[in-house]
Amino acid sequence: MAGALVRIGDQIVLEDYDTYVPSEKEIWKYAQEIGIDPEQEPELMWLAKEGLMAPLPAGWRVCQNTQNDDIYYFNFNNGESSWEHPYDDHYKNLVIQEREKMLAHGSFKKKEKKKKKKEKKEKK
């Protein structure tokens, strides 16, 4: 994700990379954190990837505690810190909105019909 930039006591401020590309494992994990079931909702995985690649808001930096390697986010403008990415709530809401769009367009209904059809064939 990032490389070390500044060390302050047992905390490291990590350097952001514009070229960061998350691994499939990272995307899968983040998808679950924002409410996506990767196996059942592969069509929503783009939101997880986008969320991981989104730049932090102004003032926010990724930090790491060297004692336990925990990653957290710190806003150097106002002193706020968070275990969650500042945009997590935004992406959780986008997941809900995308599901609603898909329901409105019948995408989930079609998927469920295909799944039931496949299950019937497997029982035979």
UniProtKB/TrEMBL annotation:
Source lineage: Eukaryota, Metazoa, Chordata, Craniata, Vertebrata
Matching PROSITE patterns: WW_DOMAIN_1, WW_DOMAIN_2
The protein's name in its UniProt record: Centrosomal protein of 164 kDa
PANTHER family per record: RH04127P
Keyword Cell cycle among UniProt keywords: yes
Key words, A-Z: Cell cycle, Cell division, Cilium biogenesis/degradation, Coiled coil, Cytoplasm, Cytoskeleton, DNA damage, DNA repair, Mitosis, Nucleus, Phosphoprotein
GO biological process: cell division; cell projection organization; DNA repair
A GO cellular-component term linked to this record: ciliary transition fiber
Region Disordered, residue ranges: 105-124
Function according to Swiss-Prot or TrEMBL: Plays a role in microtubule organization and/or maintenance for the formation of primary cilia (PC), a microtubule-based structure that protrudes from the surface of epithelial cells. Plays a critical role in G2/M checkpoint and nuclear divisions. A key player in the DNA damage-activated ATR/ATM signaling cascade since it is required for the proper phosphorylation of H2AX, RPA, CHEK2 and CHEK1. Plays a critical role in chromosome segregation, acting as a mediator required for the maintenance of genomic stability through modulation of MDC1, RPA and CHEK1.
SMART domains attached to this UniProt entry: WW (SM00456)
Subunit composition and interactions: Interacts (via N-terminus) with ATRIP. Interacts with ATM, ATR and MDC1. Interacts with XPA (via N-terminus) upon UV irradiation. Interacts with CEP83, CCDC92, TTBK2, DVL3, NPHP3 and weakly with NPHP4. Interacts with DZIP1.
Main location (coarse class): cytoplasm
Matching InterPro entries: ABRA-related, WW_dom, WW_dom_sf
Biased composition range(s): Basic residues: 107-124
Residue ranges annotated for the WW domain, each copy included: 54-88
Subcellular location: Cytoplasm, Cytoskeleton, Microtubule organizing center, Centrosome, Centriole; Nucleus
